[in-house]
Amino acid sequence: MTKVGIMETAIRDGHQSLLATRMRTEDMIPVLEQMDEIGYHSIECWGGATFDTSMRFLKEDPWERLREIKKRLKKTPTQMLLRGQNAVGYRHYADDVVREFCDRSVANGMDIFRIFDALNDTRNLETAFDAVKRAGGHVQGTICYTISPVHTVDKFAKMADTMVEMGADSLCIKDMAGLLSPMMAKALVTRLKADHPEMLLQMHCHDTSGYSEMAYLMGVQAGADVIDCAISSMAGGTSQPATETLVAALAEDPEHATGLELLKLGEIAAYFREVRKRYWKFESNLLGIDAGVLAHQVPGGMISNLVGQLREQGAESKLAVVLEENARVRADLGYPPLVTPSSQIVGTQAVLNVLTGKRYATVTRETKNLARGAYGETAQPIADKILKAILGDEKPINHRPADDLEPELDNARKEIGDLAENVDDVLSYVMFPQPAKEFLEWRKSGGGPERELVAAVIGAMFAREPRPSTAAPALTTVQSNGAVDAWRTFGRMRQMR
Which of 173, 255, 266, 371 is the most exposed place for a label (fewest CB within 10 A)? Predict the structure, then answer.
């Protein structure tokens, strides 16, 4: 029997997708030890937008968050999202930065690194792959799934071949916009498992279009080993499919059952249901199914950014036109997958084209860099007339972009000075200079990184107080009643079959 693994995303992509990445460490800590007992394949807890948001909005040290999480996950591997040469930032960093970041991430408690490049240019993965391997971490080579005339199963399979040759320990299909159809999931997983039968294959889908549960089931039947899910109270919409739903569905398939207990998952869901209420003002309001994404291919988070840009100009009514222009700009720029940072680059340029009334009359610096090759090689070469419109007489590069970057760490150490207490602080400053500097100044002035953690530890102590019931502790009766009772009933019904 092949046991299908579940990666839980609630404390990373789940709240990033639904709550603008605003969940505090203090709301994660009380439930971590209970999550550690579930039997997840891994728990995604870091990377993506969490690093930036921790300092910029929450006055938290992202490195301290990782350490606190790792202390409590003694059985379950930690997992993060790493943007290749972009690390956790929005630009390419010099190799010395990427190497030090990967080394320090492992030292602070990271186990599995899901490493992707926004353009699927494997040259941008080389340094991160090597650095993680040297530090003793697990390298998960990642395909950013997208749809275009030039993206085919063969093309994705060739990318997987390259990543395996580069030393990937596992592979992932990353479907950030919910575009992976059930039949394509079957075809792509079948091909990748045929080419690399011993390689663990993980699937990451967002529920935006309504495809994801079907894609997961087809993928699992075709040989996928691990699927990414969010506990039900942090699932759906632009997040991942619900953990309990997939566990229940696979429980009826002896060949692919997860082995996870629905009753225990119900308790986790009840905890996060209460936590989510505290972040109501950050709710995305992109709930339920948006089948329109199958046409415009724009991820939910990117749509909210487009709406914000248009609203600032009093042009929110032009969203439909912008979405159409977004598709044209993406084609012009060689069909980049719409994932950070390429999604923001394409979207912002589409807004400018619509608002100015003339395509590429105003071009952002990021659009120029993308056309110039500074982000890497696009899936399809950019047409000469588009290059002329964007770059003028400047010629694009055809080498690995990071080869043009001088080492950055030494200068960063000098710039941040004694605000940095260690190399982790220096790395935070390199990634996000202004937010990191403001955070480090706040900490030095007495704010301290411990404020949230003290509250979290107190919360965790109360959560672990003995209870008269022999059931799993850590949740109040009010939190656990509905979901737990429902899963008890579900379990009895399954036993009666």
Answer: 255
Quote the crossing angle between the two packed helices 365-372 and 384-391, to the nearest 10°: 140
Give the CA radius of gyration of the chain. Answer: 22
Reported as half-sphere exposure (CB side, CA atoms, 13 A), residue 63 has a value of 22
Prediction pTM value:
0.89
Amino acid (one-letter) located at 341: P
Give the span between the Cα atoms of 408 and 381, in whole angstroms.
31
Tokens standing for 72?
Answer: 């409590």
Measure the CA–CA gap between 155 and 86, rounded to whole angstroms.
23
Q: Cα–Cα distance between 80 and 105 in angstroms, integer? A: 10
Residues whose CB is less than 8 angstroms from the CB of residue 296 and which lie 6 or more positions away in sequence, other chains included: 323, 324, 326, 327
Q: What is the tens place of the pLDDT at every residue in 342-394?
A: 988 999 999 999 999 999 999 999 999 999 999 999 999 999 999 999 999 99
Cα–Cα–Cα angle for 229, 232, 236, rounded to 5 degrees: 70
* Sign, Cα dihedral of 432, 434, 440, 442: negative
